Amino acid sequence: MSGSITAGTALRTAAVPTRLSYPPWRVLAAGIVWLVLAGLTLQLPEAGDFPRTAVFAQGSAAIGLALLPLGLLAGRLGTFGARLRHWSPWLAAIAVVLLTWELVTAKFDLLPMPFFPPPQAILEVFLDDWPKLGGSTLNSLILLAGGYAFGAGLGFVLGVAIGTSKAVGYWAHPVLRFVGPLPATAWLPLAFFVFPSSWSASTFLVALATGFPVTVLTWSGVAGVNKAYFDVARTLGASRSFLILRVAIPAALPHVFVGLFMGLGGSFAVLVVAEMLGVKSGLGWYLQWAQGWAAYANMYAALIVMALMCSSLITLLFRLRDRLLAWQKGLVQW
Amino acid sequence: MTGATVQVGRGPSLQPLTQDTPVLIVDDLSKTYADGTQALSGISLSVRPGEIVALIGGSGCGKTTLLRLIAGLDHASRGTVQVDGETIREPHPNVGVVFQEARLLPWLNVAGNVGFGLAGLPRSERRARVARALERIGLAEHGGRWPRELSGGQQQRVAIARAFVTHPRVLLLDEPFSALDAFTRRDLHDQLLGLWGETKPTILLVTHDVGEAVTLADRVVVMRPRPGRLDETIDIGLARPRDPVAAHHEGAVRRVMAALDRSLRPAATHPPLAPETRAAWW
Fold it and tell me: What is the DSSP string of B224-250?
């Protein structure tokens, strides 16, 4: 009767002990590595002049000191403690990477200096240049949000229309086949020429990059809906619009999400290129600007922010999918 | 309670109906596919309100095709289907269907599936009907679960409840229990009759299980294959609730078996009834 349910719980409970079985000293060890990083950063003489070395060391020390009591208490901290123990090897690894980086740059000067700034130089960018970096991030987000929403919305509607109407399919399909595979960036010169502002041009490009995969996958999702569902719905009195809204679209949603995911990836690429070549704000522009001034630390900082932004947005999309597609099983965890 | 009348009729059985006007009238229905194969030939059938009729026969005799035509899911090449005097050309709210597979919509939970056909009703009415149906099929606590979390028998129960809650006048069941084990099947027979008792829809049940036909139906119609057509009709005439192990139940099963047996022989060489078979009926 409830075979699948019990199997499911068994799997889930089986997954928990592996998480909890990390020995408690792992968090302590991670804390100690961070303290070593702090100590060496402070004690070893530097090859250049880096004003934020002390702050970097203090920050590392603070993380290390925080991890020590947390490591002792991890067993009593419930989910947070379990998570901390699970990720403690990564915490230690990050400290090791930072330490290595610190040693080969600031301390022993093994890497060519302007191109490989030490961690404290990047920290300095975050501490001193955050208004410009933050503003650029915000501008990128606004541009991306507008273009993505526009492209995803239009692509979804178009995909549903092609999938459900023969007439729309007849006219849209050839256009889609001809124009769709063209990379959105190829439109860039034309877009900046045709559109009144670089902002509207970039919105168009981002929408284009998002719209194509969303259209194609929504369409294929709608076209591939099991005909048996339509039979069931028709015998229950469903009208044509009801069939589209309550059967075709929900059944196609898993495909739509693949399209949204691919579209998001494509939109990042177009966004950065558009900002580098035309728009006078945003992270792409910041990268370009930093390169112009040979401010390599700023470039690394911008890359880190960009990675965080893209990763967070994809996480957000997957969270949305998990909510809307809870009825599916075996979803890939992001 | 005694074994009822036996009709050893040949061909379409359009019996004169004594009391009620029939709710479902199938008249000379034929279906020929585009490639020339004839699936159904001259099917005529009348069913009274609240009657349960079982269509029985081997595979390939067009049982499912006939149900799809009556449901309005396919179009007949010739002939008509009428429900309550209305000709069926498209799926109609008065005709409900339960398919061989449960076909639950996976993105709706159990309650959502049961209430799918009630979109036009006010929310409170819809909820009340769904809750009542779920209770009837013993899944009152499971309204919030996903179809994938249910067993095959539970899924089919939800599908049956989904067809019943819209209160169709005619309900078509296409081998709904064929994929289930014998225990689950008996359970579902009881629940089907429980649901049927509430609104008394006319039921046309396609099955290849003689025991099931005799347990559920007032009348069993035997179908012949290639092309599919109606053969004999056997009135079961047993009172409900029925006891599948009682002697007269056994008798009814034997009568249906005999009719099935005759339907498998070529029509031209159809022999007169053997005396020992007759003895078994009475």
Answer: ETTTBEEEEEEE--PPSSP-TTSHHHH
